[in-house]
Amino acid sequence: MIKKKRPRWIPVVAAMIRKENQVLLGQRPESGSLAGAWEFPGGKIEIGESPEEALHRELNEELGINAEIGSLKFSITHQYGDVGILLLFFEVHYWKGEPKTKHHNEIKWVPISSLDDIHLPEANKKALDQIKAALR
Ligand code: DGT
């Protein structure tokens, strides 16, 4: 009998960090997957963490901020090769500390109206309408 490979899913949390009509994006490092794409800060949920705990940890590691994780706004799935990612988007309105570039190539505040022109990961491009609606 041919054994079917178990599907592999990776749960990922991402933050929509908002300041007036701008949102904070980070450019993925030049080495590694999705190099150069501008992403919503966040990352993989580790075993034993809640999604909110994972996002709180990632924002501390990546940006050096102590963030209050807001509501879950929407979720999407995407396929990279034979791996599925489940991406959960949370809103973040309050944080302590000034975001710093600790993990990304660069971070920047992007006007919500210019999100269409930014090089986003494929998973986010697909969800652009949902992202814009959640930021409205
Ligand atoms: P990877 O892809 O295995 O090289 O993992 P990392 O460590 O570069 O990436 P990590 O831990 O931030 O995982 C996030 C995964 O979700 C990664 O495969 C990229 C994907 N992704 C798609 N859109 C987004 C987004 O807007 N934000 C974040 N943080 N990840 C995203």
Describe this structure in words.
- The chain is an alpha+beta fold.
- The protein has three helices and nine strands; from the N terminus they run E-E-E-E-H-E-E-E-E-E-H-H.
- Strands 1, 2, 3, 4, 6, 7 and 9 form a seven-stranded mixed sheet that branches.
Helix/strand layout:
Layout: E1 8-19, E2 22-27, E3 38-39, E4 42-44, H1 51-63, E5 66-68, E6 72-80, E7 83-92, E8 94-96, E9 106-111, H2 122-126, H3 128-135
Parallel strand pairs: 1-7
Antiparallel strand pairs: 1-2, 1-4, 2-3, 2-9, 5-8, 6-7
Bound molecules: 2'-deoxyguanosine-5'-triphosphate.
The quaternary structure here is single chain
Rounded to an integer in angstroms, the radius of gyration calculated over CA atoms is: 15 Å
What percentage of the residues does DSSP assign to strands (E)?
35-45%
Q: Which small compounds were modeled alongside the protein?
A: 2'-deoxyguanosine-5'-triphosphate
Order of helices and strands: EEEEHEEEEEHH
- Counting DSSP E segments of at least 2 residues, the number of strands comes to 9
